Prior knowledge:
It contains 21 helices and 5 strands. The N and C termini lie far apart (76 Å). It is an all-alpha fold. The protein is 60% helix and 3% strand. The protein folds into 4 domains: 2-130; 134-301, no CATH class; 324-383; 390-502, no CATH class. The chain has helices at 2-34, 38-51, 57-73, 81-93, 118-130, 134-151, 157-181, 186-202, 208-220, 226-239, 270-276, 282-289, 325-335, 340-352, 365-383, 388-396, 400-409, 419-431, 437-452, 458-473, 495-502; strands spanning 250-253, 258-261, 293-295, 475-476, 488-489. The strands form 2 sheets. A 3-stranded mixed beta sheet has the order 1-2-3, with no helix packed on it. It has a two-stranded parallel sheet with strand order 4-5.
Amino acid sequence: MKRICLIVVLFLSCLVGKAQTANELQVLAKKAYTSVDYKKAYSLYSSLDSIMPDLYFYDLWYYYVSAEIVDYYYPEIVVDSAKIESLLYRLAQSYGVERSWFYTSFCENIKLHERTYWLQIDSLITISENNRCQPFIDSLAAMTERDQAVRNMEWTEETMKLADVVDSTNTAKLKQLIEQYGFPTWELVGQDGQMNAWAIAQHSTEYLPYFLKQYRKAVEENNATRRELAYLEDRLLVENGRPQIYGTQFLYSVTDSTAYLYATVDMEHLDDRRIVADLYSMEDYLKRAQLGNIDLRRGYGNYLTTYYPNLNNDFNPKQYVYWFPKDLETMANHYYEDDTALAVKLAKKMILFGHTLDDEWNLPKPLMDSVKECYDELRADYERLINKEVDSMINAMTSFDTLVKFLETNPYHRYEIDSWNGHIKKLIREKSAILTKQDYQEFFAWLFKQVGSGDYHLYEYAELYDEVHHRLYRTSYYGQKKLDEKVRIYKPKQLESRRKEIGLPDSR
Length: 508
């Protein structure tokens, strides 16, 4: 029995090692290909093909292109012609290939149509094209035309409302078409058709989880692109107030003409994840996108609204994903008079991001009544996301050191646990008599890093800092503690400079 278990363990270990090797090879091969080192790319893709025979479509395409270029331009390297032929057949038999791909610039000197097997390749592509669902393709093209037409208009309040109507109609129609024909895979609608479907799905809110689930299945079956899947994955994460994975979602601020990257996990290995998802490196993407000013500081866009508390009529809430209840509340109050529906929507998001009825709410009574009607249902949706184990572990901690060590060594999302915001204040109050001034200084230095990464609200930080500062020195450091008029400001002449230093607006 022990021997059998050992064999199983060794077998599983080999599988894990193989997967890791394949993933590493994939990254290295794509890097070589994009840097126009075709000799290295060909060698790496050959190795990848030997351990992963069912290559993802784009890897297979890059392998084929590298083989053709090496065979033509580097005669010192022997490329088996049968290998090239087999790669072409594999491509032609896959769903993703388009006839036009074989007439791109890389093969200007490679006359495929003169090869003996080209007619067979061509006929396989023709069969694939003829098996596609033309009514579905035509419907997707018409929907995309409507989608792009409204977005090419001057962006005004009326245009935004029209875009909402178009998006709502298109996404509902897309879901209906999927139920009728099936998901728009390469096999069903070709690459152009699938790109149209993806563009429509991107603008969905209600049906985005549905589209994403379908897309994942298609990618697993090598019948859709990982690139479009990455965009949908990131979009849903950002919509739900979570850090994205592939760095595809940006916030563009018209205030300072700067694009801000929404919070992104593990920025150090971002480009490796993008490569596997068939995306350009972030550097190459930014060059190609010509976005102008770029700020890649992780999470800056999450709390950008705190830097612009005085909203004006030009402010477009759709540009922002509100990750903090405090910001949501500000927005809801701002829009209550002019756009009640939007105010209600923002108030509901407060619950989805962890706010409870036990917390302080500063909303008009009619708005609160609307919230209370659906509170139980929305709270249940939020609680389904909570990591109960992590929640319990954090609540059981009794010192700042253990809390900090835990959060630094374990992946966490503040949006998944009620304890993240609440437990810090609890610890502050419980340990105020024990901890030294140095302990507080070290802790707040760490806590401010969490503000910079989008995991703690700037205002919460300032208010908590002031609470501690008042206990230690009987003064308010940032002017956020206003329990009564007797609370003095620490060095009042320097107050505004201190607030500006961390990004707080002028207090005057």
